[in-house]
Amino acid sequence: MSLSKAKILIVDDEPQLRRVISTSLVSNGYTVEQARTGEEALNKLREQKHDLVLLDLNMPGMGGLETCREIRWSCDVAIIILSVRNTEKDKVQALDAGADDYVSKPFSTPELLARIRAALRRLPVSPDSGSQILLLGDVMVNFLQRRVTAGEREIRLTPKEFDLLQYLANNPDRPVPHRRLLQAVWGPDYGDEVEYLRVFINQLRKKIEPDPSHPAYILTEPWVGYRLHIAK
Predict the structure, then answer these.
(1) Per the domain annotation, does 127 fall within a domain?
(2) Do 154 and 61 fall into the same domain?
(3) Which of 29, 75, 79, 95 has the maximum number of C-beta atoms within 10 A of its C-beta?
């Protein structure tokens, strides 16, 4: 997918903000749709495939967090939260609900465009990056197909969860610093958002670890980062 051809859904109850964002995105080559409420957004996502959702937190009816959870439960579209709230607690709640990123209002157009590019970027699978199949107990990761299974059961990872796992797998049994992980998966403008890693690593552990509270594969390196342990 060419980033400039991505289809973006703007979900916000403020018509003026939707128009401003829409104009900026269209002028940068994106295809844009708009929704005023969470319910309308879910209907549009059911009707057509989108690549990214820009989602306001403060909306009447179904709130932004609930909408985010519903979207994440139903599909793997990239989600960026837009909000006037700017505390770490708010950001962690949004990431826990399934968001890929969090942008505080007011924001500049260049900042939003950079965040969109970061949310849409995917780690490539290069021929020299090691095996394209990873086994973690009964969990099999196929990097070429971007598919994770446990026996006959499909394990759904979000794009960012998959990229995190892939980058750790490309550096097996080696500590990967927080900043390096953030810049590899989200992009060069990131590096201090350690709370992003805490949330996404926790989500990954819940999906692939036999006992997420005592991880055997995705290990924490205190004060440094994370390491993927692969049994020999």
Answers:
(1) no
(2) no
(3) 79
The residues near 64 (Cβ < 8 Å, ≥ 6 apart) are 11, 38, 55, 56, 57, 58, 81, 83, 94
For residues 16 and 109, membership in a common domain is answered with: yes
Phi-psi region of 139 (alpha: psi -120 to 50; beta: other; left: phi over 0): beta
33 with 80, same domain? yes
- The arrangement of strands across the sheet holding 225-228 comes to 176-177, 225-228, 218-221
**Contacts for 134-140 with beta carbons within 8 Å, 24 or more apart?**
134/169, 134/230, 136/208, 136/217, 136/230, 137/210, 137/216, 137/217, 139/208
Instruction: Indicate whether 177 belongs to any domain.
Output: yes
pTM score of the predicted model? 0.88
Domain identity same for 145 and 106:
no
Check if the beta carbon of residue 80 is closer than 8 Å to that of residue 53: yes
- Quickly state the pLDDT bin for 44 (edges 50, 70, 90): very high
What is the C-alpha to C-alpha distance for residues 64 and 70, in angstroms, rounded to an integer? 10
Report the DSSP pairing between strands 31-35 and 7-11.
parallel
Of 170, 168, 192, 167, nearest in space to 179 by CA: 192
CATH assignment at residue 20: 3.40.50.2300
Give the total residue count for the chain.
232
**Shortest CA distance to 34 belongs to which of 71, 46, 17?**
17
pLDDT band of residue 86 (cuts 50, 70, 90) is confident
Q: Is the peptide bond before 124 cis (omega within 30 degrees of 0)?
A: no
Among the three residues 63, 87, 120, which one is the final residue of a domain in this structure? 120
